[in-house]
Design brief:
CATH topology of one domain: Glutaredoxin
Number of helices: 3
Mean pLDDT: 79
Strand content: 15-25%
Structural class: alpha+beta
CATH superfamily of one domain: Glutaredoxin
Order of helices and strands: EHEHEEH
Radius of gyration: 17 Å
């Protein structure tokens, strides 16, 4: 974080530092949810991981949820989540499933519960 007076600390949210001036207060908002959702599929890129990725994207589309989506393939990053069985699904940095391919319908149920839709 930059040092200085609070009024000097106005940066955009993508830099990960506070925007104390609130000029971009709604930059991480969408119509149906108060904040952008973080969704990650953890896995090496195998067919099962790709299937979970597609099912997750389909579920997000069905719900109209905008999300920052990432497919993490680096084993050290996967292990940092405590995952030893892939594929895994992480929503807002919480592991919600691992070791199986969820259907789009199952992902919809999980998203609805986790995001309180």
């Amino acid at each position: 974080m930059r040092k200085g007076k609070p009024e000097d600390q106005t940066t955009n949210f993508s830099e990960g530092t506070p925007n104390l001036g609130h000029e971009q207060e709604n930059c991480a908002r969408n119509d149906s949810n108060p904040a952008v959702v973080s969704v990650k599929v953890l896995g090496p890129g195998c067919a099962r991981c790709k299937a979970l990725e597609e099912n997750t994207k389909s579920a997000l589309d069905r719900l109209g949820v905008k999300a920052n989506f990432d497919h993490v393939t680096d084993f050290s990053q996967i292990a940092a989540y405590g995952i030893m069985s892939t594929p895994a699904l992480v929503i807002n940095e919480k592991v919600v499933s691992f070791g199986k391919v969820l259907s789009a319908e199952e992902v919809v149920k999980i998203l609805t519960s986790e995001l309180q839709l």
